[in-house]
Every structure is written in C-alpha cells, then in structure tokens.
Write a structure and sequence with these properties.
CATH class of the largest domain: Alpha Beta
Distance between the termini: 42 Å
Bound molecules: pyridoxal-5'-phosphate
Helix content: 25-40%
Radius of gyration: 22 Å
Number of strands: 17
Structural class: alpha/beta
Shape: globular
CATH superfamily of the largest domain: Alanine racemase
Number of helices: 11
Order of helices and strands: HEHEHEHEHEHEEEHEHEHEEHEEEEEH
Strand content: 15-25%
Length: about 375
C-alpha cells in the first residue's frame, strides 16, 4: 500500500480502506491448510459483511458462516451457488424466521437442547448440528469467553456425554478470540474426542477466533485437522472472520482541529470511536501508522462527537500533525464498520477497495441513509 499516494488520492474521509491483496494473502495459509487436511473454509461474515468483500473472496472459500436471517440472505445472494455452504448458529433463533433460515442455510448448529427441540423440523433441507460448550476457557477477559460460567453459548459438554439427539449430524464449537496459538484447538479437540468417537457425525465446525493469517507455519495446524478428518471420517470446517479482514482494513481520517487542553495537544478527527466501537468498549488504543514511538511530542487523538470519552488515545509523534493532515489507523478491518453508528449525525466512513492497480469506492454513506434510518419509510 502506497500510503502517501493514497492519502492524497482518496477523495473522501473518513474512509475504511480495504487492502484487497492483503485479504487474498490472508486466505493463502487457510488454503494451504485446506489442501493438506481436506477441511473446508468459511468466512464468518459478521466481522465485515460488505458485499464487495464477499464477492472478492467467494471463489477462495467454501462458503460463509452467518448468525442471522439478514446475514443468511446476503450470503445466499452473493454465493448464488448450490454447492457452497452457509453455516448458522445463534442463541437468538426466531421461530417465525426459522423456515426461511432452513432453506437458506446448509448447516444449522442449534445453541441449546431446548432450541433444538422446539425448532427441529421433520422435513428439512439443512444438516442439523449442535453448538457445544466444551467448558475450556482460554480468554482472560470474560466478555470474550464463550465458556465463561453460566455461558449462553452452546450446549454444556457434560449434557452430551450420554449421546446426542438422534437427528444431530454435526457439532460446532467456537471458544477463542484473536488467538495465534493453536494449543486451545488441540485441547478442545482432545476434550471432544470421546463424543466424536461414539457418535457417527458427518461434520465438525471448529469455529473462528484463530488468526490463521498470523501463523508462521500452517503445517502443524493442517496435520491436527487432517487427523480429525481421517480418524472420524467427517467434514471439518473452520470459520475465521478477523483472520480474513482484520489486518486488511485501515481507517483513514483527517485532522479537523488542534488545540491545547490542560497542557496537552488535542487533535479532533473527522472520525470517532463510534466508527470503531471496540476502542471504547474494550478501552483499547488502535495502532496508528503515523505514530513514532520514539517521537518527542505527543497528542491526544479524539473523535468528533459530544461524548467526552470519545478518544482514541495519546500518541507520540516527531512532529504533531497539522489541521488538514490525514492519519491512518491500522488493523481495523474486523468488527469496526459493522458495529459503527451515526451518533451525533456523523456519517459512516465510506469504503474503498484498494489493489496495486487502482482504488475503487465501494460504498458511500449519505444523508439519504441517515434519513432512511430515522424516518418511517413504510416498510
Ligand atoms: C464471531 C464468530 C466467528 C468468527 O470469529 P473471529 O474471531 O472473527 O475469527 C466464528 N464463529 C462463531 C460462532 C462466531 O461467533
């Protein structure tokens, strides 16, 4: 990415800039794992359900995984392919949506035994499964831990020791977040082994949460997955989200104002934490490309909204950026735009796809979008 050029050329700000070459590169280790192990790759579209992104990667993956009716509809529109998989799991299955979900999705992992009991249909097109809670916690922060005490995610593994409901054809688990180490996967598979051994399943979905793009050597993971495929004779799926788009997304912003507050420089940006709500939710400081950790000066980068805590953090610079300069937050492709909102009436970032040959506007937010959100359009 030629950032100095891009900062001059991209006409609007704030913008989410997607590096298409990086997205395709992120899929490479996954394809190596697929080739060596026979597993299938799904993209978990909740990380960024941008249609242009789905279209870019659809031929490189075996399908998408979804959490709701709208995601399932968009996935099936983009895929338009009878052979591709759409996997669904959610604690919030609506009875009135279930028939359509059953038609759109190839695999449904029920989140609880009562949910399965209520919604399983005698006539069905999808392959039924269960999301299992393996009761192995790997996250330090309970807000990210699907196996925390009293978890709402998945059937307690202890309830499955005596066998699975008769129609269940697959199991699903998802237990980690932004994980670069595959020991949790190994441990989880070990814990599931007795259940896999004594049931005749067709498939196993290993969930997302692993940064497959960040592993040095995919062969060990491939071997782990290959053994599962061979030992149990089942189809194995992986469904990363952040590992596909996280490091390929950048938030381009422009400095709108600069002043001193209680002795510190404050830069007001034309974006806000509402364009990357995890900054506020988890009080994390996103990486800024222009930061110079050895720089002598520092400034607080703050968003445009009325919330006092709408602040990205304090950053170091050799020279504090001026009004009108552009700055770029990196590694913000996942869980940013999808969680973004128009608080205070500020538009969402436009989206640009960039590859070595060109940049293209993929989506622009306008007053019409804001108006549609807040007026009664009648449907
Ligand atoms: C969120 C989620 C994923 C994707 O997680 P990443 O951390 O983005 O890889 C996959 N499967 C399930 C069930 C999820 O909830």
């Amino acid at each position: 990415m030629k950032w100095e050029e891009l900062k001059r050329q991209i006409p609007t700000s704030p913008a989410l800039v997607l590096d298409e070459a990086r997205i395709l590169a992120n899929l490479k280790p996954l394809q190596t794992i697929r080739q060596a192990s026979g597993c299938k790759i799904l993209y978990s579209m909740k990380a960024l359900p941008l249609a242009a992104l789905l279209a870019l990667i659809k031929d490189q993956v075996d399908g998408f995984s979804v959490s709701s009716l709208f995601e399932a509809r968009l996935a099936s529109e983009v895929l338009a392919d009878a052979g591709a998989s759409i996997h669904l799991t959610t604690p919030g299955m609506r009875p009135d949506e279930f028939a359509e979900l059953g038609r759109l999705c190839s695999h449904i992992s029920f989140n609880s035994l009562p949910q399965h009991q209520r919604l399983q249909a005698s006539v069905r097109d999808y392959s039924p499964g269960l999301r299992v809670n393996p009761k192995l916690s790997f996250a330090d922060d309970q807000r990210y831990d699907p196996c925390r005490p009293h978890s709402k995610l998945g059937v307690d593994i202890e309830l499955l020791r005596d066998g699975l409901p008769a129609d269940v054809e697959g199991l699903h688990f998802h237990t980690v977040f932004a994980c670069r180490d595959f020991k949790p996967l190994q441990q989880t598979l070990e814990k599931l082994r007795p259940i896999l051994k004594c049931s005749r399943l067709k498939w196993l979905n290993l969930g997302g949460g692993y940064l497959y793009n960040a592993i040095a050597d995919p062969q060990d993971v491939a071997e782990l997955i290959r053994q599962v495929c061979v030992e149990f004779g089942i189809d194995v799926y992986v469904e990363p989200g952040k590992g596909v788009v996280g490091n390929a997304g950048y938030l381009l912003t422009t400095v709108l104002d600069r002043f001193v507050s209680d002795g510190k420089d404050v830069l007001i940006l034309d974006t806000s934490v509402n364009h990357h709500p995890e900054v506020f939710e988890y009080q994390m400081k996103p990486h800024l490309r222009e930061e110079d950790s050895a720089g002598e000066q520092s400034a607080i980068l703050a968003g445009s909204t009325c919330l006092a805590g709408d602040v990205f953090g304090e950053y170091r610079f050799g020279r504090i950026p001026e009004v009108g300069e552009r700055l770029v937050f990196a590694d913000v492709g996942a869980y940013s735009l999808i969680k973004a909102n128009r608080f205070n009436g500020y538009k969402l970032p436009d989206v640009y796809g960039v590859n070595p040959a060109r940049w293209v506007l993929q989506k622009r937010d306008s007053y019409a979008d804001y108006r549609r959100q807040w007026t009664n359009s009648g449907d």
